[in-house]
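chain and backbone:
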Amino acid sequence: MPVLDDTHNVPKAELPVHPSVLSKAKRMIDILGAVVGLSITLIVVIPIAIAIELDSPGPIFYSQVRCALNGRYFRIWKFRSMSVGADQLKHLVKNEAQSDQIFKNENDPRITCIGRFLRRTSLDELPQFWNVLVGEMSLVGTRPPTPNEVIHYSRHHWERLNVKPGMTGEWQAYGRSRIKNFEDIVHMDLDYQRKWSIFYDIILILKTLKVVLDKSGAC
C-alpha cells in the first residue's frame, strides 16, 4: 500500500519494479525520440508563441505538478492552451468524466481558440519531450495524474504508477479524449504493463502518430 513522504507529501508505492523502468533499450529510444521531438519544437516554438500571445496574452508555457513513477512529483510542461488563471476557475467547469480521478470537459470554456488547435494537433504536448529527455517521463507509458487525482486512488489504481508516465500509451493510441471512464484508463494502463515490450512501444508510437495526424478522438 502506498505511503506518504513526511517532507514532501510524495506518495511512495511499495510495488515491484517493472521491467520497462530498467530497460536500457527503452531509455535509448526515449532519448533519441526526445532529441527529435525537441528539434521539432525549436522549429515551431516561435510561430506557436506568437499565436498564443495574439490569442491570449500571457505565458507561452504552462507547467503543472504531476505524479510519476511510484507517485513521485515532477513538473510537466506544455504550450499553454488555456486562459491565464484557468486552474483557479476549474471548480466552475463541469467534470464530464465518470469519477473524481480524472477531469474531462469537451467544451471547456477555459480553452483558448489557438489552444483548441494545439490540443487537436497535440502540438501543446511538444515541450514534454524535455520531460522525456531528463528521464521524468517516457515516450510510452501511463497518463501522469495530478496529486489531487491520486488522493482519490484505491489500492489497485496505484499499480498504474508502477511505470514511468508517458507522452502516449494505450489510452492515447486507442481512445484519446473519448475515454471518460477512469476504470477504463486504469485497465488500459495495466494492460500495457502486462503486454510491454520494446516492439509494443514502437507499435503504440506509430499508432499514436496515425491518431494525431487523423485528429481522431481529440477535443
About this structure: The radius of gyration is 17 Å. The chain has a mean pLDDT of 86.
